[in-house]
Each structure stands twice: as structure tokens, then as C-alpha cells.
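Example record used in the benchmark description.
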Amino acid sequence: MSSALRQRCHFTRQLATLMAAGLPLLESLTSMAKSEPSGDMRQLIVRLCVSLEQGCSFHLALRQSNDFDTLYCELVAAAEMAGNLDQVLERLALLLEKRQALQSQIRTALTYPCAVLLITMVVVTVIMVWVVPVFEGIFSSLGADLPALTLSVVQMSRGITNGGAAWVLLAISGLYVPVRLLMAKPDLQLWRDTTVLRLPLLGEMVHQSQLALWTLTLSDLLKAGVPMLDALEVVAASSTNRCVGMSTIVVRAKISHGASLAAAMESLSTHPSQAHVFPTMLIQLVDVGEQSGALDTLLAKVAQQLNAQVDNLLRQFTQLLEPAMMVVLGLLMGGLVVALYLPVFQLGQVL
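Model output (C-alpha cells):
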């Protein structure tokens, strides 16, 4: 998880706890500044205290710091108008903690395969650099023709030992900056995020997590009293998937012309690139919430269900990834062993 998200989560939880205990905002921030171990975070809290002492509202002080996103500032602004800052800070803390937990789950799920992949790369490199040349010397002394598989492994070993690996790393490093610059373009980001959502299993997991954050964020904004159009604008800006964000902007435009939220979401079915963003079940539940007048509460319940689905998908992803890694490793290491000993087996048959 990112350090910034962890710090914002800790800051929000601590401030919500102090204000729920009855301490005023400025006194809570002053107390937090005295006990904050991080120098950067302490300076941020001190700057917020100075802004408040100068008569600035809390949400404007947060905006001026540039350390809090649009969603955070909008929720605080709505809370200051409604006079329920402690309650909104509690919901914000829960929202950030869920984001933090989701990032931690994904990171944990990917740690094992990444570690296995790294160890495999080290082992294969050692075999290619030190073991294969020894076998190559033995094969040369025998003077026999090498099988195609063995010959390809020997040629790969020669390429690595003669600096081929360094050239590959140099080429990858040279492509990194151009690729990053290209991926900074909105059109390519939209294509990337749309493609990710359509991947098997992994795409479903990303899609469900995005919908969980979408419904939870919209629910919190509506509970805080933010108007629907403003809430959707904030949700679109805070979305980490450009496809979901663009779809939210389209939905907001439809609502501004008089459509309901459910009808606006359903209208995306005519857009090929956005038809899959909001599933039919979610649209039906939103329609029920609008008709019953409890959209914010229903969205919060949907977010809970989606979070549970994300947990299940993460478990499935981990369970499938481990045997898949074992199969790949078995084929790789087994292929190397067969390639190195195949000439020996053929020689034994000849003798």
C-alpha cells in the first residue's frame, strides 16, 4: 500500500476519534501534531492548524495542502455545511481503511508468485551462465550432433554469457520512458483500463473492486448531503480506472438532462466500450433505491456485497495462481534438464 494512503488513513481515524470524544477541531489537530511521529505529517497538521487559526475553513485548508484528493475535500466541505464533521470523518476513515485493505490484499496475493518468479529467474540464470557451458564442453568433446532442443539452450546460454542479457535489460530500460510517456495519454489509459476489465478472473476482480469503491463513495457523498451531480463528478475524479470514470461522466451528463441514475446507467448499454461497466443487477438495485428514497443506504449495502465478492475472487485468484506457477516452473526446469541430458540419452542408445 502507498505511504500517502496509510498516512491519510491514520490521520482521518485519529481525528475522527478525537472529535467523537468531544474535542473541537483545532484542539484535536493541535493534540495530533504533538504526538505525530512522522515529521512530514506533523508539518502538514501544523499548516492546517495555522490555516484554521487564520479563519480558513477546514476543507479549504485541506485543498491548499494538496495532500488530500477531491473526494476527501468534498466530503469535509459537505460535513462542515451540515455540522456533522465527526460522523463524516468516521465514514471517511472507513472508506480509506477499505481501500487500504484492498490494496494490501492484492499486494499479498501477488507477493508469492513474484517471489517465486524472481527465484526462478536467478536459478535459470545460474544454470545458463555456469552449468550449460560445462555441458557444452562435454558435448563438444563427444563430437555428436546436438538435438534441436539442446542446441537452442546452448545458443541461449552463449547469448547470455556474451552480454546478451545486458542488451536485453538495456533495451527494456530504453523502452520504459517512451512507454510511460505514451501511457500518460488519456486515450491509451482508457484503452488499458478497458482491456484490464475484460481480462478473465483478474479483470473481474478489478471490476468488482472498482464497483465496490464506486458505490461506497457515492453512498458516502449522498449521505453527507452532496447533490447527485456534484457527487458523480467527485466519484468520476476519484476513480482509479479511467473506463469507470468516463462512464460516470456520461451518466452524470444524462442525469443533467433529466434522466434518473438507473436510466442513465442503463443507457450505457448502447456504448460498446462502456456497456459492461455497470451490470444489470446493480442498475436494478439503484432503480429500487431511487424509487424507495433510500439510495444511499442501498448503495452502502451493495458495496458490502461487492467487497465480499472481491474477497472471494482474490481467494480464487490465489488458489489458481499457485498451481499455475508450479506448472510453469515444472515445464521450464524440466525442459532445461531434458535439453541438457537428451544428448547423453541418445549417446547411450547408440553405444
